[in-house]
């Protein structure tokens, strides 16, 4: 009986079109801005080096080679999924590259993608909660990824 009250196909298409236009005109510019600013900050400032310092002891405890270089990529994953992989390419150790690459995919909450869409939606989640979710996902998946890396490398 709910189907009788549902909007018709035409109304559905109009709503879908409005949603797509909203994404293109509102969310995508924010996503591009966040990604660009994060790239500039990562390239020309040491801010992500400083923010990543708390991860160095954890990475050393987990016996991750080149823990300092890997720590710099841990938080930047919050801004964009691809930046950690780009920044870790200069590291010679394949295990460290593997850990950073897999972690960047597992973190899942990126301001330049999913996070931007969530913040632009009606979901009652703020930036602080998104960052907390990001950190929790990082801390849960990091030991698992490192364990798998130690098995393969």
UniProtKB/TrEMBL annotation:
Residues that span the membrane, as ranges: 23-53, 73-91, 98-119, 131-152
UniProt keyword annotations, A-Z: Membrane, Transmembrane, Transmembrane helix
Keyword Transmembrane helix: yes
Protein name (database record): Nucleoside transporter/FeoB GTPase Gate domain-containing protein
Lineage: Bacteria, Bacillati, Bacillota, Bacilli, Bacillales
């Amino acid at each position: 009986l709910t189907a009788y009250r549902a909007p018709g196909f035409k109304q559905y298409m109009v709503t879908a079109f409005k949603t797509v236009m909203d994404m293109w005109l509102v969310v995508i510019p924010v996503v591009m801005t966040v990604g660009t600013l994060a790239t500039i900050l990562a390239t020309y400032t040491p801010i992500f080096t400083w923010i990543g310092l708390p991860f160095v002891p954890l990475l050393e405890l987990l016996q991750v080679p080149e823990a300092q270089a890997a720590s710099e990529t841990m938080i930047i994953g919050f801004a964009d999924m691809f930046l950690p992989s780009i920044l870790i390419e200069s590291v010679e150790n394949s295990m460290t590259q593997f850990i950073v690459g897999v972690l960047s995919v597992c973190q899942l909450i990126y301001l330049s993608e999913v996070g931007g869409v969530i913040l632009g939606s009606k979901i009652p989640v703020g930036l602080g909660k998104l960052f907390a979710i990001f950190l929790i996902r990082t801390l849960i998946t990091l030991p698992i990824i490192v364990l798998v890396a130690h098995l393969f490398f």
